[in-house]
UniProtKB/TrEMBL annotation:
UniProt keyword annotations, A-Z: Iron
Ranges where the Ferrous iron transporter FeoA-like domain occurs: 1-68
Highest taxon listed in the record's lineage: Bacteria
Protein name: Ferrous iron transport protein A
GO molecular function, one term: transition metal ion binding
Keyword Iron: yes
Species the sequence originates in: Candidatus Avichristensenella intestinipullorum
Amino acid sequence: MKPGMSGRVLRLDGDGALRVRLLEMGLTPGTRVQVCRAAPLGDPLALRLRGYSLSLRREDAMRVEMEAT
């Protein structure tokens, strides 16, 4: 998703420590997420979810399957 777009989390790909960490950060299925901005080279991304801001590397964000709303 591009800056300014929003959607909701469908699922997280993969397993292991990264998946657990994404869940701990609030990226759970059904959560609404807005992409606020991307750094000049596209990494990291600034997201807004659950009333707080989150900065996430593009590589990690690719593991979050989203549905645009």
